[in-house]
Amino acid sequence: MIRTALFLLFTLLIVPITVYLYGSPLTGEQVNVLSKLVRMYALMAGICFLTGEITRNYSQVDKLWSIVPILYAWLATEWAGWPPRMLLMSLLITLWGVRLTFNFARRGGYTWPLWGGEEDYRWAVLRAKPGLNKPLIWSLFNLLFICYYQMGLILLFTLPVVAAMSHSTKPLGAWDGILSALFLAFLVLETVADQQQWNYQNRKKAGIESGKGFLDRGLWGIVRHPNYASEQAIWILIYGFSVVSSGQWINWSIGGCLLLLLLFKGSSDFSEEISAKKYPEYARYQQTVGRFFPQLSRSKRVVSGEISR
């Protein structure tokens, strides 16, 4: 637990501070906007913690994951006076959020009362692990990682919108169009991947896919996590707008997309550990299909089943 805490402290604090010191300093307007967003983050993370502890449903952050970035982006855009690039970024983030919110809702993520709904199955697995199965330790994990770390990450990967404020008068150009087109392409890929997973799960429940355990067809036959791969690409592209705006390949808002890559690496490791224990064929699937990138050459597979998300 101590090593985990130190790693989280490094990623959440040291990485953003380092890139902040490396790049151009924030303007007074950016500092003002950022301070408002940080206060909102602290409040929402605290509410998620208290709600999770009271209800014993620890997926409260999941309910806000697709909504809060939209809120952050539009507030920053309004406070900056609606510059075109920030407006474009906010529109793209809204499309991303609507898609993800819909996908989460149809899986039972939102119910009434709002603190109910589906809990991520991985939290139950983690709660049973030695070291985390004590109530006090789990509450600390809920406070530090599930709530404040993840909500902090949401804020960080949305900050390229704030970074674009300092160059808000720079007109939109060809690179903005290219980034937007790539963003929409990955959004479509993620939508298709989730729909394929949804269709497969429903067929399993209906008994049509009896005997199969994990999905390995369609996009899932090209990479093991097409939805994760698209999600990471989307937020790297959002960071790309801050590069176009500032003219700097590395600026203070890069920490969010870097930390998101680490999160998806850890999340996919954990999901695949569970899948490998459930399905003997999963090890072969891992050997023949790339995690986030297609393998250049792979042998003919005879595997079947469900990737956990």
Termini separation comes to: 25 Å
Q: How many domains?
A: 1
DSSP helical segment count? 12
Helix content: 55-70%
Could you name the ranges where pLDDT drops below 50 across 5 or more consecutive residues?
299-309
How many β-strand runs? 0
Q: Beta-strand level of the residues, as a percent range?
A: under 5%
Order of helices and strands: HHHHHHHHHHHH
Radius of gyration from CA coordinates: 20 Å
The secondary structure category is: mainly alpha
Q: Give the overall shape.
A: globular
The mean pLDDT is 85
Major sheet: none
Structure description:
There is one protein chain. The chain has twelve helices and no strands. By secondary structure, the protein is an all-alpha fold. It has one domain. The longest helix has 32 residues, at 174-205. The two termini are 25 Å apart. Mean pLDDT is 85; it is low at 299-309.
